[in-house]
Amino acid sequence: MFDRVTSLPSEPPRFFNRGPSPIAKLTFFGVISLAVMFIDSRFQTLEKVRMAIATVVYPVQQAALLPAQAVTRVSELFETRAELREENKRLKADLLQASQGQQAQIAAKQESERLLKLLQMSQSAPTRAQAARVVYMGRDAFSEKAFIDRSTSQVFEPGSAVVDELGLLGQLTRVHPLFAEVTLLTEKDVTIPVKLERTGMRALLYGRGPGKRPELKQVANTLDVKEGDILITSNIDGLFPPNVRVAKITSVQRDPESGFARVECTPTANVAGADAVLVLDKPPALPPRPVTEVAPETVGKKRK
Q: Which of 10, 89, 135, 283 lies 20 to 30 angstroms, CA to CA, from 73?
């Protein structure tokens, strides 16, 4: 009984065949659509209907567009922030490069001004001047020394004065094949014969070591010494060329009990940061000191 296969009818039962046929429906609605389109185009009768429908549907359309608009705005926000970051990085790099260029230009201008002053000093120097550069400072914290380069064609002599564009820096103490050692005027116990540019009074300037300002010693309270006075080399004993700026008086303290004033000075040269310097040849040697004659009476007393 299960071998029989019941076949379904190929056409739907008549129970579902109600109303006109699909072709009749298509024709009917097509004719109505054409008629409505003709009437609307001819008499504009559906304009108000369209406006009312558009007014009703517009909020729905905007509500439907909200998610897409939100996504678009968020993506634009992230894109804008990324672009701003990149622009900020680029502007910072440009600013840094411009700042470095400006600093290099300022440094080059200052270097040019220093070299011009050094050239003017070499032209006005009373002796021959040879240019050199400070290659490094001394490593000993308790001494004030610098080292300058020296070419094979330059002849340096120990004892020669070393100056920068502002004044006396120190004195050559050792000469090596490729460099020379300069003892700065601030070195302890270095003595430089000087005179006041304003009055011509002679004195001795003593270095006091690292971190301390040089000072004039054995200056009586009655002498005309003021803060701001400029000290220049006096060429006493022929150690330095004359009239080279050495220091500026920055402090004068008079002591009535001792009768002497304490006079502290600041070097005019850039002792701690000199770069380009001049090595001045030693001035001509002075004639020998005259022999002091001893009175006969003194000789007789000594013999007794």
A: 89
Q: Say yes or no: 94 and 174 in one domain.
A: no
The end-to-end CA distance of the chain, in Å, is: 177
Residues 167 and 119 in one domain: no
pTM of the shown model: 0.59
pLDDT at position 13? 56
288: DSSP letter: P
Residues 45 and 62 grouped into a single domain: yes
Using the 3D structure, point to which of 77, 103, 124 is the last residue of a domain: 124
Q: What is the residue-averaged pLDDT of the chain?
A: 81
Contact 239, 193 (CB under 8 A): yes
Tokens 């040019």 locate to: 112
Confidence of residue 232 (pLDDT cuts 50, 70, 90): very high
Query: pLDDT tens digits for 64-82?
Result: 878 887 888 877 777 788 8
The structural domain count of the chain equals: 2
Q: Is 246 exposed, middle or buried (0-12, 13-18, 19+ CB in 10 A)?
A: buried
Distance in angstroms (rounded) separating the CA atoms of residues 254 and 261: 4
Q: Which of 95, 124, 153 is the last residue of a domain?
A: 124
Helix (H, G, I), strand (E, B) or coil at 230: strand
List the domain range (segments joined by +) for residue 210: 129-280
Each residue's pLDDT tens digit, 190-227: 999 999 999 989 999 999 988 899 999 889 988 999 99
Please tell me the distance from the alpha carbon of residue 214 to that of residue 263, in angstroms, as a whole number: 9
Do the Cβ atoms of 242 and 234 come closer than 8 Å? yes
Q: Is the dihedral of CA 61, 66, 67, 70 positive or negative?
A: positive
Identify whether 220 is part of a domain.
yes
Q: Please report where in the chains the tokens 């939100």 appear, as a residue.
A: 70
Same domain (yes/no): 260, 147? yes
